[in-house]
Amino acid sequence: DAGVTQSPTHLIKTRGQQVTLRCSPKSGHDTVSWYQQALGQGPQFIFQYYEEEERQRGNFPDRFSGHQFPNYSSELNVNALLLGDSALYLCASSLGRGYETQYFGPGTRLLVL
Amino acid sequence: AQKVTQAQTEISVVEKEDVTLDCVYETRDTTYYLFWYKQPPSGELVFLIRRNSFDEQNEISGRYSWNFQKSTSSFNFTITASQVVDSAVYFCALSVSNAGNMLTFGGGTRLMVKP
């Protein structure tokens, strides 16, 4: 049973650049959520995708956008990178829009210089 | 708005000691779910337990046990006879009915178990 996978594992960018992170959900799951985890803090919710639409969004600027594909995989895009965007980006998958448990991937560590 | 507080930022114990990680939550919703996740140095969040607001039964799973008390809005996690492999950051999280499946996390407690 394949778990949640994310790519790449690590990424280094410079300020002003754009980045795309990818996530494949756990087998059988159709909902993908993205979280940002700054060093030493708890994860912060960015947004959630279900049925290829953004269903919920946390307190993040429009520079953060996403997409969900028909196979339920998802991308997170961040434009005009800032130093403060340096963090671990975690993808979580679940089934449906209810209270099902979210299972997390290994994350992508983004460093913005 | 929802809030989760983990007052203990770091705990250090010696192997075989029991340790309790505290979690206090705030919400006005009557329907909500509470979670505990473990984050080892690799970074991946590992699901440990989910508990809904209508089930106050405590739960035990091997060396792990959870104490849910609505009266004090707490959902504490105890590891009995700790082991070095338990060393990790532990997060408590909350999801509420009017916020879909969004998880609100606490700041985490770093547990160090020394041999």
Care to describe what's here?
The complex is a heterodimer of chains A (113) and B (115). Chain A has strands spanning 5-7, 10-13, 19-24, 31-37, 44-50, 53-57, 64-68, 74-78, 87-94, 103-104, 108-112. Chain A is mainly beta. In chain A, the strands form two sheets. In chain A, strands 2, 4, 5, 6, 9, 10 and 11 form a seven-stranded mixed beta sheet that branches. In chain A, strands 1-3-8-7 form a four-stranded antiparallel beta sheet, with no helix packed on it. The mean pLDDT of chain A is 95. Chain B is an all-beta fold. In chain B, strand 10 and strand 11 (104-105) form a beta hairpin. The model of chain B has no long low-confidence stretch (mean pLDDT 94). Chain B is built from no helices and twelve strands. Chain B has strands at residues 3-5, 10-14, 19-21, 24-26, 32-39, 46-52, 59-61, 64-69, 74-79, 88-96, 104-105, 109-114. Chain A binds chain B through residues 31, 33, 35, 41-45, 48, 55-56, 58, 88, 90, 92, 94, 97-107, 109, and chain B through 4, 33, 35, 37, 42-47, 50, 52, 91, 93, 95, 99-108.
Greatest chain-chain contact: A-B, 28 and 25 residues
User: What does the overall shape of chain A look like?
Assistant: globular
The residue ranges of chain B in which pLDDT falls below 50 over 5 or more consecutive positions are: none
**Largest pleated sheet of chain A:** 7 strands, mixed
Q: What percent of the residues of chain A sit in helical stretches (DSSP H or I)? A: under 10%
Question: What is the mean predicted local confidence, pLDDT of chain B?
Answer: 94
- The value of Rg of chain B in angstroms is 14 Å
Contiguous helical run count of chain A: 0
Q: Which word captures the global form of chain B? A: globular
